[in-house]
Amino acid sequence: MEKDENNKIKNRYDRIAPLYDAMELLMEKGKMGNWRANLWKKVVKNLPKSGATLLEAGVGTGKNIQYYPDDTEIYAIDFSKKMLQQARKKAKDNNKEINFLEMDIQNLDFLDNYFDIIVTSCVFCSVPDPVKGLKELRRVCKPDGKIIMLEHMRSKKEPLGKFMDTFNWVSLYTWGANINRETMENIEKANLTVIEVNNLLFDIVKEIILKP
User: Fold this and answer.
1) Does the pLDDT at position 98 exceed 80?
2) pTM
3) Between 203 and 18, whose confidence is greater?
4) pLDDT digits over 171-184, tens only?
5) Coil, strand or helix at 126
C-alpha cells in the first residue's frame, strides 16, 4: 500500500518536473525567494567550520542549489527521477559538486548520525507518511546536528484551516502536495526537539529549526 502511494506521488512529480519552475516563478520572485535566502544563511551559520556533511532531503528541481555552501560534503535526494534531472542542470550551471541520489525520504540509505545539517523546503506536504520521513531525518542527523526546514502547513485559524481542508484535493491530484498537513504535530510525533519556529506567512509558512 505504501509503495503504491509513493509511486502515485512520484509519477505526479515526474509529470510536472519540466514545468515546475515556471509554475512557481511568481512565488519565487516574491517572498519565497527571500525566505530561501534567509534559510540558507541560517544553514551556513550552523555548519561546522570544517568537514561538514549536509543533506537536502527533497531537492526537487534544485531551487536551493545556488545557496549551497562550498567546502561541504553535500547530498541531495529526491524520489522523482525527473525532478533530479532538473536539479542536476542547476548544479552544472552553478558549478557545484553534489552527490545526487534517487531516494525516498521515508527509507534513507544513509548511516545513523551521519549529517551535521539536514535541510528541507516545502517537502513534507508531499511525503506519504510524514512522521516516518521525519523519524528517518532524526536517525541520520548527528546528535549535535540540526534539521532546518521551510515548510507550509494547515492554518490553525478558522475558517482558513477548513478552507485548506476543502481544497486540498486540488493540489494533491495536480502535483501531489497536501496543503493541510499538520507538520508541527508530526514533528512532535517523530520525537524531534523544536529549537526555533518563525511564522513567515500567518501560521501557514514556517521556518523551523530542530534537533534530534
Assistant:
1) yes
2) 0.94
3) 203
4) 888 777 899 999 99
5) coil
Tally of CB atoms within 10 A around 195: 13
Q: Please give the Cα distance from 200 to 202 (Å, whole number).
A: 6
Could you state, in order of their start, the residue ranges of all structural domains in the chain? 2-211
How far is Cα 202 from Cα 59, in angstroms, rounded to an integer? 25
CATH ID of 2-211, from 3.20.20.60, 3.40.30.10, 3.30.379.10, 3.40.50.150: 3.40.50.150
Strand partners, 114: none
Interval 79-100 mean pLDDT: 96
14, 78, 132 from 85: Cα distances, Å: 10, 10, 26
User: Which amino acid makes up residue 163?
Assistant: F
Least confident residue range of 24-33, 36-45, 178-187: 24-33
Where does the chain show beta strands of DSSP type E? Answer: 53-57, 73-78, 99-102, 115-121, 141-152, 193-201, 205-211
| Alpha helices per DSSP H over 57-120 | 81-93
Closest to 121 in 3D by CA, of 210, 202, 72, 59:
59
